[in-house]
Every structure is written in structure tokens, then in C-alpha cells.
């Protein structure tokens, strides 16, 4: 087993009441990956306001890849800690009077288990794609091609760019012709949030293949990007189920930038990290990643028509509007709030599940350089949302495939509310 001396890391220093876990110097990518293989999972429930704020801060600010902290619910956080780092972690958190509950050894590579569940899931009768399993990028591309061949008058595919590893970045343009307001939806920006491409695909399927929804494409066009970060998505299927970022090569052997901190609006402010190994690394410069650069170009190109932008993430179960970088409210915050609240009501009526509604900073956390803040603050799209789908599984991101139909159908009820608003307010 690896010992501490194998990994020259400064750690566990208490400074001004805050634990400081410094960057792991001299770690190459391979050794870094190796040391992450054996992890212990803890549950932490903050008892004081200060403890809660500290955990939220650590979740984005100082989280540097040695351990990962994930908010599990309104009250509890899960922290995954490498085995070799256990003692230092317990000492540091114990010194701050946190109550740590040991949940046990974490099984890291759960991709194969997922695939086992996936293979046994039957397809929905009326769809040539199943919504009872998660799909690989190739399968998703095949379904897009199928739609464009089967419904050539309604669906047009476009490769709007190429990923770092040369995968096509593909969108489906749903239109019955003419110049109409556009609803733009992206998903899969964060690789491990598998429920989000499933959601985007379900929206496509429901818009195109369900006759009762024909009215949804008559006066509004849709641009749907099912997988905005295909390199990361594939990596989360083949190597690390909980990979979040892109796959670009960085200094010190580290890989990946957080695409949702890489947009050129209030870039590298609070709520994003400058450390390459961090889960929220903002990148060496704004739009350093082809995935964010091409998505922003796509949005700019269609700016006159795009009236509503939704970026799907998981797993906070909320509908959040700008801003994430500041407490200041956009001029039409009330409008965005009311619209999201109406969508939430429609969602609730389907299965009785509640989604929080508020600004990104209110319902999630501080973040800068997000696609939604950029789409609103820099591109100037009227209505912008980060739509966080529900969580499940061991770490929230690994919602079991059996839950897909519940999520995608209830959220589609909310999508219909957004559509109605765009149609009423932006069609001539
Ligand atoms: Zn996300």
C-alpha cells in the first residue's frame, strides 16, 4: 500500500481556523491517478453557520483534487478521502469540531456496474432509443443521425466544432422552417452528470417523435446539444465514473478544465479555482477549451433568435438563473424567477417532486465563468437557466438508470412551460 512518503504533499495545516491543503507538488498525472484509487467516504453534517460556509467554500475554493467534497442534501456533505490521507483529514476536521461519520470504503470504478444495469434495460416501445439506460457517445450520435434521416424536414444535425480529442461537437436543430425564436439547450457539460444527456435526448425524442407535442415546434425552434463535453463523458464511461472536466492536457500532467468556469464573463473570480488539479479549475484563459469556445460561437451566431438558454446539470434539483458570481440581481430577475416557479409547479404536478428556484448563488453556490452567467451577462440572452436535475447513487452524480424515466418526463413538463412563455412573448 502507498505510504505518505510516496506522495510529497503538504497537508492538514490549520491556519486561522481553516484547514489548508496545499497543492500536491511533483505529482505526475499517473501517480496522481494511482493515489486516488483507494478512498474512504465520510458524511459531514455542519452544526454551525460557520461550518456550513466552510464546507461550501471547500467544495469549490480549496478543493484541489486530493479529496472531493460533494453536497449530498441540504444538511449533509460527503467527502471522499484517499486512504493514505485519512489520518490528516480526520485530525484537521476534528480540530474544527466537525462530526465525521465514516461511511466506509468507496468503490471507485463503478462504470462496469452501470453497464451491467444498462444492458438489461428494455427500450421504450415507441422510441428507437432507450430511456432506461445511459448511452455512450456513439449511441447518442447514432440516435441523432436516425432522427435526421427519419425526420429530414424537422431535424438537421450540425457539427459546430471539434473537442480536444477530436470528437465532433454535434447539435440537433429542430425547426419547421422560417425564422423563429430559438430555445437553446445544452447538457453533458460536466462529464459525470449522465442524467443530463438523457434529459436532452428525451426532449428531442418528445419534440420529434411524439405527435401530441407537434405544437411545440410550430412557432419555436430548438437547438439541442446533448453532450457538450464528449471527451469527459466518454472518459466517465471508460475510466473514472466521477470525472467532471474536459480532457485537455495541462501542466504537471494534470488533465481537464471545468468548462462551467471557463466562459469569458467574470472569469477566475470567486467560486472557481486556479489550480490545475481542482474540480473547478477555470483554465489557463477564458475559452481555453474547444468545447466552451465552440459553444459560445454557436450562441453568438444565433444570438438574434435565441430567447431562452437552459444548461442542464445535476444534482442539486433546482432551477437557477443568473448570477452565480455576485449577489446582485439581473434587471429581469423577477421575470426569470416567476417563469422558473411556474415550470417548477408543472414539474411538481407530474410526480410530486420539488425543485428549488432562485439565483445560482442563492440555490447553489458562488461560481464565476459559468455558461449561464456568460449567456446572460455577456451574450445578452433574456432568459438563462442552470437547470440542475436530481441526484442519486453513491455520490449524487450516479443516479441509477432506473430513475431516468421519472426525471426526464417530469422535467419535460417544465420545458413545456418555458416553451409557452417564449411562444407568447417572442413570436410575432
Ligand atoms: Zn454540473
TrEMBL record:
Keywords, in A-Z order: Carboxypeptidase, Hydrolase, Metal-binding, Metalloprotease, Protease, Signal, Zinc
Superkingdom of origin organism: Eukaryota
Family: Belongs to the peptidase M14 family.
SUPFAM superfamilies: Zn-dependent exopeptidases
Organism, as annotated: Photinus pyralis
One cellular component (GO) term of this entry: extracellular space
An annotated GO BP: proteolysis
Name this polypeptide is given: Peptidase M14 domain-containing protein
GO MF annotation, one: metallocarboxypeptidase activity
InterPro entries: CARBOXYPEPT_ZN_1 (IPR057246), Peptidase_M14 (IPR000834)
Cofactor: Zn(2+)
Boundaries of every Peptidase M14 domain copy: 133-422
Catalytic machinery residues: 388 (proton donor/acceptor)
Amino acid at each position: 500500500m502507498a505510504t505518505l512518503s510516496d506522495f510529497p504533499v503538504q497537508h492538514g495545516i490549520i491556519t486561522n481556523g481553516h484547514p489548508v491543503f496545499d497543492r500536491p507538488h511533483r505529482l505526475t498525472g499517473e501517480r496522481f491517478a494511482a493515489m486516488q484509487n483507494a478512498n474512504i467516504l465520510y458524511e459531514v453534517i455542519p452544526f454551525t453557520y460557520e461550518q456550513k460556509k466552510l464546507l461550501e467554500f471547500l467544495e469549490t475554493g480549496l478543493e484541489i483534487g486530493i479529496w472531493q467534497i460533494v453536497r449530498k442534501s441540504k444538511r449533509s456533505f460527503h467527502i471522499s478521502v484517499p486512504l493514505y490521507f485519512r489520518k490528516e483529514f480526520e485530525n484537521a476536521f476534528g480540530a474544527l469540531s466537525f462530526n465525521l461519520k465514516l461511511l466506509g470504503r468507496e468503490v471507485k470504478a463503478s462504470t462496469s456496474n452501470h453497464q451491467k444495469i444498462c444492458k438489461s434495460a428494455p427500450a421504450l416501445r415507441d422510441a428507437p432509443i432507450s430511456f432506461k439506460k445511459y448511452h455512450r457517445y456513439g449511441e447518442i450520435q447514432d440516435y441523432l443521425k436516425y432522427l435526421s434521416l427519419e425526420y429530414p424536414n424537422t431535424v438537421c444535425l450540425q457539427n459546430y466544432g471539434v473537442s480536444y480529442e477530436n470528437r465532433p461537437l454535434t447539435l440537433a436543430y429542430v425547426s419547421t422552417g422560417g425564422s423563429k425564436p430559438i430555445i437553446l439547450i445544452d447538457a453533458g457539460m460536466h462529464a459525470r452528470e449522465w442524467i443530463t444527456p438523457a434529459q436532452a435526448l428525451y426532449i428531442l425524442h418528445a419534440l420529434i417523435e411524439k405527435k401530441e407535442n407537434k405544437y411545440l415546434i410550430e412557432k419555436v425552434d430548438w437547438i439541442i446539444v446533448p453532450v457538450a463535453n464528449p471527451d469527459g463523458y466518454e472518459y466517465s464511461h471508460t475510466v473514472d465514473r466521477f470525472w467532471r472536466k474536459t480532457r485537455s492536457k495541462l501542466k504537471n500532467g494534470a488533465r481537464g478544465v471545468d468548462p462551467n468556469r471557463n466562459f469569458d464573463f467574470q472569469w477566475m473570480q470567486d467560486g472557481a479555482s486556479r489550480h490545475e488539479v481542482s474540480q473547478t479549475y477555470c483554465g489557463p484563459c477564458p475559452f481555453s477549451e474547444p468545447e466552451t469556445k465552440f459553444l459560445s460561437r454557436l450562441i453568438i451566431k444565433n444570438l438574434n433568435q435565441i430567447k431562452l438558454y437552459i444548461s442542464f446539470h445535476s444534482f442539486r434539483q433546482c432551477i437557477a438563473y443568473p448570477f452565480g458570481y455576485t449577489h446582485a440581481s439581473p434587471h429581469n430577475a423577477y421575470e426569470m424567477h416567476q417563469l422558473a416557479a411556474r415550470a417548477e409547479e408543472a414539474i411538481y404536478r407530474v410526480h410530486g417532486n420539488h425543485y428549488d428556484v432562485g439565483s445560482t448563488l442563492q440555490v447553489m453556490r458562488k461560481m464565476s465563468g459559468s455558461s449561464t452567467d456568460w449567456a446572460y451577462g455577456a451574450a445578452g440572452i433574456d432568459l438563462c437557466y442552470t437547470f440542475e436535475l436530481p441526484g442519486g447513487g453513491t455520490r449524487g452524480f450516479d443516479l441509477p438508470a432506473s430513475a431516468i424515466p421519472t426525471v426526464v418526463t417530469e422535467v419535460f413538463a417544465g420545458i413545456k412551460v418555458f416553451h409557452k412563455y417564449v411562444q407568447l412573448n417572442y413570436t410575432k
